[in-house]
Specification:
The structure holds two protein chains of two kinds. Chain A is an alpha+beta fold. Chain A is built from two helices and six strands, in the order αβαβββββ. Chain A has a three-stranded mixed beta sheet with strand order 2-1-6, with helices on one face. In chain A, strands 4-3-5 form a three-stranded antiparallel beta sheet, with no helix packed on it. An eight-stranded parallel beta sheet of chain B has the order 1-5-4-6-3-7-8-9, sandwiched between helices. The N terminus and C terminus of chain B are likely disordered. The chains are: A alpha+beta, B alpha/beta.
Chain lengths: 115, 318
């Protein structure tokens, strides 16, 4: 299995370790990510590799929760905000292809529940 | 002392935390000291809970000095005991760690006045052939160095060296892309060429490398006419991130069904500012335009990094 979601979860673990160095806690219960529907990561792939990548780290045994951030964009032809299912998709209102993504590209570690 | 993690600035194999040797905590910060041994620890799984194990740096043993292997190992800690439950807001971009390494690489590369180009494509589109030809044709005009990324083997770096350029091979092991930390390691062994060109050949993959900034000045995506003309639509992220697209193997156009116009249209749809050149690494067709593009970028860089014009002589004392 080759996918960049593995290294994205490794980066999450590194951020958790960083946090662990600053604020002492003994166990991570929940890791909450915000993942944009139009961003570089596939939520299912993140979930798929999560247990394997976190095994043996401070994040081992934690639960992954993903908040999916829907995509949206701005259509310069309609001069309006539109929902966007596909980063390079056409405007759902006018069919134009010049929509600029305005949200849905995010990939963020939002918060940790620790004890 | 490192103010982020509290480690000593020397003898970093051991941290003073309670969990044993080394904390394996990779983080970025702005100060200069010998951090290699813990910031870039190759972590290994601890067989028993309760111990951090700092493994050796990649390439520390049993590998040629010009090969770095990031393929081995993950992990090491398990912590027992329960404490108070709480929530910590973090709100950090997951790629921020890569971004910090990339910024450091960029600073180093620009400091040398070098032009770094990150070359991306699917496997077999002719990246290495283009690089070999470029080195052969440009080596008497500009210094070219190459960082080669592949999952396994040093075949590509060997090809590059035979063409006459200095090359470092990075083997990513199971990794599907190069990241900025790997490039930083390579630059420690092979500094960016002063005023020259640093070509970074990414792992053949049209998906994953798009998300990882390496500290390059520009991304070049290579597509060959033996692939589908709709690839830019199927794998938009790489094409959207690229500055230049090379359509390679154009000598095969008479023999394949490839709609050049449709290809350009799909590439420009995902990236309206994409520059496109048609080339053949085999015959050399179109490569002079590519070389002109490289020289143009080098000239831009030189203009940016030139020392400011000498100030007029100070007024002489009366």
């Amino acid at each position: 299995m080759v996918m960049h979601e593995v290294s994205l979860i490794e980066s999450v673990v590194a951020l958790v370790e960083q946090q662990w160095a600053k604020a002492a806690f003994e166990r991570v219960k929940v890791i909450r990510l915000q993942v944009g529907a139009l961003g570089p990561a596939e939520p299912d792939a993140l979930r798929f590799c999560f247990d394997a990548v976190t095994f043996g780290t401070i994040a081992q045994g934690s639960r992954l929760e993903i908040e999916l951030i829907q995509g949206s964009g701005w259509c310069p032809d309609c001069r309006t905000d539109v929902a966007l299912d596909d980063r390079f998709g056409a405007c759902p209102a006018c069919g134009g292809g010049r929509v600029h993504m305005t949200s849905g590209g995010v990939l963020r570690l939002a918060e940790l529940e620790v004890e | 002392m490192c103010t982020v993690c509290g480690c000593d600035s020397a003898g970093l194999e051991r941290s003073r935390r309670d969990f044993g040797a080394g904390h394996g905590n990779e983080h970025e910060h702005g100060h200069e000291h010998e951090h290699e041994s813990h910031h870039t620890i190759e972590r290994r799984r601890a067989p028993t809970p309760g111990a951090w194990r700092a493994g050796p740096e990649p390439a520390a043993t049993s590998q040629p000095a010009d090969t770095i292997d990031f393929g081995a190992g993950l992990a090491g800690v398990s912590v027992t005991g329960l404490g108070q439950e709480r929530t910590i807001r973090i709100e950090r971009d997951i790629l921020s760690r890569n971004a910090a390494f990339a910024a450091s690489n960029r600073h180093r590369i620009l400091g040398a006045g070098a032009l770094a180009l990150n070359v991306l494509s699917s496997p077999g589109s002719g990246k290495t052939s283009i690089l070999v030809r470029t080195i052969t044709d440009l080596c008497d005009q500009v210094t070219v160095c190459v960082i080669e990324g592949d999952q396994q083997t040093s075949n590509d770096a060997d090809r590059i060296r035979r063409a006459g350029a200095q090359a470092i091979q990075i083997n990513t092991g199971k990794g599907c892309h190069l990241d900025a930390h790997m490039i930083g390691r390579a630059l420690e062994i092979m500094p960016p060429p002063q005023g020259g060109v640093l070509l970074i050949e990414n792992v053949g993959n049209l998906v994953c490398p798009a998300a990882f900034d390496l500290g390059e000045a520009a991304k070049i995506v290579v597509l060959s006419v033996t692939e589908g003309e709709d690839k830019p639509l199927k794998y938009p992220d790489v094409f959207a991130a690229a500055d230049l697209m090379l359509l390679n193997k154009i000598d095969l156009l008479p023999h394949v069904e490839f709609d050049v116009e449709a290809c350009f249209a799909s590439a420009l749809r995902v990236n309206p500012r994409l520059q496109i050149l048609m080339v053949s690494a085999r015959t050399g067709d179109g490569l002079s335009a590519f070389y002109a593009w490289i020289k143009g970028r080098l000239a831009e860089l030189a203009a940016l990094t030139l020392p400011s014009a000498p100030k007029s002589a100070p007024p002489s004392a009366p």
